[in-house]
Amino acid sequence: KxxxxxxxxxxxxxxxxxxVHLKCSYHHPSSKPPLQYMVVWSRLFTxxxxxxxxxxxxxxxxxxxxxxxxxxxxxxxxxxxxxxFTKDAPERQSLPEESEGFYAGIKFLPESLEIAEDxxxxxxxxxxxxxxxxxxxxxxxxxxxxxxxxxxxxxxxxLGSPNIALSACRVDLLRAPCSESSCxxxxxxxxxxxxxxxxxxxxxxxxxxxxGRRDLLWRAYTPKDVKVTVRDLPTxxxxxxxxxxxxxxxxxxxxxxxxxxxxxxxSVSRAFEVHVRQWDCGGHRSATACNCGVAVR
Length: 297
Description:
5-stranded antiparallel beta sheet, Ig_VWDE, VWDE protein, signal, 9-stranded mixed beta sheet, 2 helices, VWF_type-D, rod-shaped, disulfide bond
């Protein structure tokens, strides 16, 4: 047998004549007689099991396979395995070397989120690991993804309010030169909805669906969902009641018997405030004021 040649195969995406291909590249050691290479392409069929989809024999230091949406589709994890041999003695083969798995499709970074009901925005990056072809001259080279959210769990329908809010309902992945496993990317923010309810931790998912594409490769593809876990946080409460007794967020208690319009609450970090109007409701017997109106921004 030939010794190990450290071929180190690597898969990269590429557009060839406007169609999406994957390229398996490997080291090409000089040898006399010259070496030939057998390249076996396979995809992950089930966890731990691969199925072969193409076999090439070549003198080149690379091999291509087309992503045609039939035997190789978006969402597949692809491998190439390379074995070297000499033409005059094909039985003398090197040890086969397999590339790392290449995921072809849409990826979300991070793949899952754990956030809290604290108003913070969390950045979600969406990228395509394969280049985006332009089907025709009138079509822009992008993929439009329609985004939606779904609350999971048996209490989601009963509770009513959504768990999460997205900064955009649609994003465009614009074509760019492929680098670091990204050929097109977009970002959006995810925020947990503060629902003022002690409803425990809740789980949602973000779904993305390509829209407006006519080619088979994208039309039949649905990216993997993103799981979002929302951690429930206790919500502050304050009160103004009866004639009016006031309890603040931190539990202080006092009374305000005055008549007029007052600032009840104002946030120092965002545009949020509450005004309250009080009128005389005690008559001649006592000087008592009651809430008669409220305005919230």
